[in-house]
């Protein structure tokens, strides 16, 4: 019996084999490439019309590959012939067929004449638009967005979608709808970086406005934010995973109704930060929270993989494969080939007339020629900075007067020697994790506004950063020293193209060797978009066996594991997984970590591990993944038997108390066993002064030195002490000059190297020292049975200040520099009301005439309206 197939499927099958369509599509790609570079090209009217008909048919097939191809055709043609009414007509029809009613208004200028069919189409269009209308504000869901949005309300939900699908936008809209409707709920929105905390918080404040006050909501970014203890307020926590863990560990008693995990692909990263996600779900289970959970990730084949962390029944899994934005891949190599990728046939098509762009000067040629804004991906900080400096020297563009203010801001915020302050004058910048957050925010804003045209970036682009670029140039297939996986590559390249306008991104990939040429082709063609959990990737059988041996011996330093793993970062990650496993084992709790370890560690060995730790530590356990039982028990004993306290910041003469701080850090090193667990901080024969360096910087940070002051201090101090805060010279070897006499290729000059060393050291102070101080502060408060320390270095490190007014302002959401400017102003902006509560005089804030502070105030006042009064009040 002949198998029946649907007409639509039969048409789709025929289209995929249609040779004329393949020929026309390849002609289009070559013509588009020539047009992009301002070259002459010929494309017959008949070919254009036939392509439009093909595109129209493909948009109706419900075959994702053909639907994507139909979008690519009409968007390319529209770019090539922007005045063509015929192309606009087909583009409108295809967009609507694929569920996109959010086009730029200019696309609606062509309207077909009235007829019975057009009236029917109009009614259907109105009905479809009403179904797709956003629940709040103006606009319409595109493509699969509505299905993704509706799934958020389910108990467990994991969706993946192309970068341009607006996953973050959907989750924020869901919060807006719930808050605006008056529902009393608590939300936790997790983002991978501190910079994204600011972005998401600002966006939510702008969306929610007066609804925050009217419906008794507050957005908070830290467990000690102002007002978090109120039982009458509902909260929207916008946090990094680390801050959320601190919230859960600090006697958090509120309910959590919804948990959103944005950029969930970070659970697959093989670094120690990924372990925090696993710990979150262990803590949620222990504290019996059952929020509705949404994992949101870029397009991967298996989004359900993240649901295993939740240990709930199988949830709702959705993949939105159709992207509303298209990318065209161009491949160049040094042998003179310039090719464009044909997604229909998976072939690379030679464009002979563009071979001149494939030589060693490819970057200069591309940057000079390509229209629109450009992102240049670099695999390292050095390559990003030096690429930006190179282009600043080569670029003929004059200094842009509009960017002089940004240059001045960076110079004052960081340092005049910071090369970013110079290169932005020509609309050029760089972007990576160690660029100060406030500067990075300004760079992103300037790029979004079109003021910065060329941006050199590292893999921070994969952390949820959305920049409206037309073009991306990639010349390395690595992230640091690690080769990109296909889903990472597609996540990176998916960052180009603008949903609001051109909807087309161009990716130029330059291969500098035959091997890279081959591997780049594999990445472009690859359909392997599967993600692997970091625990699966790192904890293989050999490592698990070594963990088993160490834990049975009660060895929390994991010496057998260390023999197998030489990389310190990888070892730290494995150790944290092992500590999670141990805690679950001691408390007889299940979880994804326990199950994974149990694949290798037998039930007899598990019992042996329990027995060993019972004999050695009795009933003591450690819930914080940053510490092991031996560390916490030694801390507890030390605090009980000694009078150890935090030193004073200043000594008797009013100078920084460096000697006492150094001795205190040495004590902490002994308590926490840094010789085993933090070799980069531990005192040793080869490295005997690193803690003295940190003592100096730590005190300056806590005492309130601005970033500019710290940069100036570092630059001047390192002229006397060349390797201050880099005693092992690891940073110098990777990023800096070999010596004073000359500059190495791809190296930072001494001033910028010193600034980079400073920013890395501040990271260590805020994250590593911050964790140790938090643990120490809790131990002191528990022993003394008090709720608060007067001299709490954890708080001083977290906010970079000892001034209570500055800390209060930062807890409200002001940036550190802004908080100091307000607190130290002679305008007396901070007052105390009759109940002893602090309030702010809004009109005096405006008198500061600091645009960034005024902008911050506009946001914060929506979140804390009762704390702002006017002079008349």
From TrEMBL:
The keyword Cell membrane does not apply. Pfam families: DEAD (PF00270), Helicase_C (PF00271). The keyword Lipoprotein does not apply. Keywords: ATP-binding, Helicase, Hydrolase, Nucleotide-binding. SUPFAM superfamilies: P-loop containing nucleoside triphosphate hydrolases. One of its GO terms (molecular function) is hydrolase activity. InterPro entries: DEAD/DEAH_box_helicase_dom (IPR011545), Hel308_SKI2-like (IPR050474), Helicase_C-like (IPR001650), P-loop_NTPase (IPR027417). Residues 362-544 form the Helicase C-terminal domain. PROSITE patterns: HELICASE_CTER (PS51194). This is Helicase conserved C-domain protein.
């Amino acid at each position: 019996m002949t198998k029946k197939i649907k007409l639509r499927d039969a048409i789709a099958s025929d289209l995929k084999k249609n040779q004329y369509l393949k020929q026309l599509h390849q002609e289009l790609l070559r013509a588009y490439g020539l047009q992009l570079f301002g070259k002459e090209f010929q494309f017959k009217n008949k070919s254009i019309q036939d392509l439009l008909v093909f595109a129209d048919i493909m948009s109706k097939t419900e075959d994702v590959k053909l639907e994507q191809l139909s979008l690519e055709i009409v968007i390319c043609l529209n770019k090539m012939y922007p005045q063509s009414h015929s192309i606009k007509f087909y583009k409108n029809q295809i967009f609507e067929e694929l569920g996109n009613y959010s086009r730029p208004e200019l696309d609606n200028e062509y309207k077909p004449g009235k007829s019975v069919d057009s009236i029917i189409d109009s009614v259907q269009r109105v009905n479809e638009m009403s179904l797709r209308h956003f629940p709040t504000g103006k606009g319409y869901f595109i493509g699969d967005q509505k299905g993704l949005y509706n799934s958020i309300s389910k108990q467990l939900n994991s969706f993946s979608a192309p970068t341009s699908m607006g996953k973050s936008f959907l989750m924020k809209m869901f919060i807006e709808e719930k808050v605006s409707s008056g529902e009393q709920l608590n939300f936790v929105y997790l983002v991978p970086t501190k910079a994204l905390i600011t972005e998401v918080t600002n966006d939510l404040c702008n969306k929610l406005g007066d609804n925050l006050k009217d419906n008794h909501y507050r957005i908070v970014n830290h467990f000690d934010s102002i007002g978090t203890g109120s039982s009458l307020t509902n909260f929207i926590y916008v946090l990094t995973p680390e801050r959320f863990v601190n919230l859960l560990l600090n006697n958090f008693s509120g309910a959590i109704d919804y948990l959103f995990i944005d950029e969930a692909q970070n659970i697959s990263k093989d670094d120690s930060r990924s372990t925090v996600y696993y710990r979150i779900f262990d803590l949620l289970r222990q504290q019996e929270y059952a929020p509705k959970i949404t994992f949101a990730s870029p397009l991967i084949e298996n989004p359900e993989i993240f649901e295993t962390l939740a240990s709930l029944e199988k949830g709702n899994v959705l993949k939105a494969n159709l992207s509303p934005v298209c990318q065209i891949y161009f491949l160049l190599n040094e042998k003179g080939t310039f090719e464009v990728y044909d997604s229909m046939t998976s072939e690379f098509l030679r464009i002979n007339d563009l071979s001149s762009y494939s030589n060693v000067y490819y970057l200069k040629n591309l940057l000079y020629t390509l229209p629109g804004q450009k992102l240049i991906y670099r695999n390292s900080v050095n390559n990003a900075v030096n690429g930006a400096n190179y282009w600043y020297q080569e670029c003929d563009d004059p200094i842009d007067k509009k960017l002089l203010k940004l240059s001045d801001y960076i110079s004052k915020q960081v340092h005049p020697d910071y090369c970013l302050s110079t290169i932005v004058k020509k609309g050029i910048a760089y972007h990576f994790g160690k660029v100060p957050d406030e500067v990075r925010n300004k760079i992103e804003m300037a790029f979004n506004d079109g003021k910065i045209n060329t941006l050199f970036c590292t893999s921070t682009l994969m952390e949820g950063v959305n920049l409206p670029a037309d073009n991306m140039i990639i010349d390395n297939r690595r992230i640091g020293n690690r080769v990109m996986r296909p889903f990472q590559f597609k996540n990176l390249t998916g960052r180009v193209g603008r949903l609001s306008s051109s909807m087309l991104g161009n990716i130029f990939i330059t291969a500098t060797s035959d091997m890279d040429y081959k591997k780049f082709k594999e990445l472009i063609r690859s359909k392997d978009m599967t993600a692997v959990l970091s625990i699966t990737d790192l904890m293989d059988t050999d490592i698990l066996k070594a963990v088993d041996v160490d834990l049975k011996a009660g060895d929390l330093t994991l010496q057998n594991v260390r023999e197998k793993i030489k990389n310190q970062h990888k070892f730290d990650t494995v150790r944290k997984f092992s500590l999670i496993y141990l805690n679950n084992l001691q408390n007889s709790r299940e979880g994804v970590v326990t199950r994974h370890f149990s694949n290798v560690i037998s039930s007899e060995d598990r019992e042996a591990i329990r027995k060993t730790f019972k004999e050695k530590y009795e009933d003591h356990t450690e819930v914080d993944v940053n510490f092991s039982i031996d560390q916490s028990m030694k801390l507890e004993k030390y605090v009980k038997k000694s009078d150890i306290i935090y030193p004073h910041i200043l000594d008797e003469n009013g100078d920084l108390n460096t000697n006492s701080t150094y001795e205190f850090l040495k004590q902490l090193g002994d308590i926490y066993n840094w010789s085993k667990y933090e070799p980069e901080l531990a005192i040793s024969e080869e490295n005997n002064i690193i803690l003295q360096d940190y003592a100096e910087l730590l005190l300056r940070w806590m005492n309130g030195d601005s970033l500019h002051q710290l940069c100036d201090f570092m630059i001047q101090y390192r002229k006397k002490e060349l390797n201050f805060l880099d005693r092992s010279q690891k940073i110098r070897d990777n990023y800096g000059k070999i010596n004073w006499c000359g500059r190495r290729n791809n190296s930072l000059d001494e001033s910028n190297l010193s600034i980079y060393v400073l920013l890395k050291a501040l990271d260590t102070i805020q994250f590593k020292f911050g964790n140790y101080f938090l643990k120490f502060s809790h131990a002191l408060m528990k022993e003394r049975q008090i709720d608060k320390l007067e001299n709490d270095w954890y708080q001083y490190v977290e906010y970079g200040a000892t001034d209570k007014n500055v800390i209060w302002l930062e807890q409200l959401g002001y940036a550190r520099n802004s908080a100091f400017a307000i607190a130290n102003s002679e305008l007396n902006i901070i007052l105390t009301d009759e109940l002893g509560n602090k309030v702010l005089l809004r009109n005096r804030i405006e008198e500061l005439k600091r645009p960034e502070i005024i902008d911050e105030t506009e946001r914060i006042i929506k979140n804390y309206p009762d704390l702002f009064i006017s002079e008349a009040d």
